[in-house]
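In keeping with the milestone schedule agreed at the kick-off meeting, the structural modelling team has produced records for the first pair of proteins. Each record is given below as a sequence line and a structure-token line. The laboratory manager (R.T.) confirmed that both were archived under the project's standard naming scheme.
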Amino acid sequence: MTCGVDEAGRIVVATYPSRAKTRNARRDPRVGVVVLSDDFGGPWVQVDGDAEVIDMPEAVEPLVSYYRAIAGEHPDWADYRGAMLRQGKSLLRITPRRWGPVATGGFPPESA
């Protein structure tokens, strides 16, 4: 899944109301997220925090912020907003409470 960071430093994830991650966050807002590097075997970190689930129609503008955080400007914001409404998307917004340590990942060197 792709996540971003909003202007308040929260981790944001676009999702659907019926997904397990969304149902679990509603049941217990204490969540953990593992953030991986773009490089296979690269650094990663676990972030623990408190999640809130935002559903439609309140999720539209937070989803615009999410899109901007991960991809920049959209060529047609009206179309994007309409698509999010039609798809019934939700947004998970996670306030980090603790994180780390950063693991360097990777595999041990092959023995000679």
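The second protein of the pair:
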Amino acid sequence: MTKDVPIACSLGADELSERLAELRAIGRDAALAVSPDGVLHFRAGAATRARLEAIIAAESRCCPFVGFDLRERDGALLLSISAPEGAEPVASDLVSAFAAEVGAA
């Protein structure tokens, strides 16, 4: 992330609604927990990884100021989402959408 990247999402209202529904669906299907520091834990597997990578790619296009870190550890996929100062609510909203139906780790 650079300071030259504007803090603005390029999705329209309908697209945003669809994207959030997609995040909730992945969370419902594969999320295990969200840790107190906001790291999302998903069941490991090729299908889940592919879905997460597709979302990361799509989000990186519409919100290039958001950072994503997807790793596999201890049999789970871990996704960290970050944003620069002033855009933290965007990262928090993404975590909340993924984690809408899971508990804390």
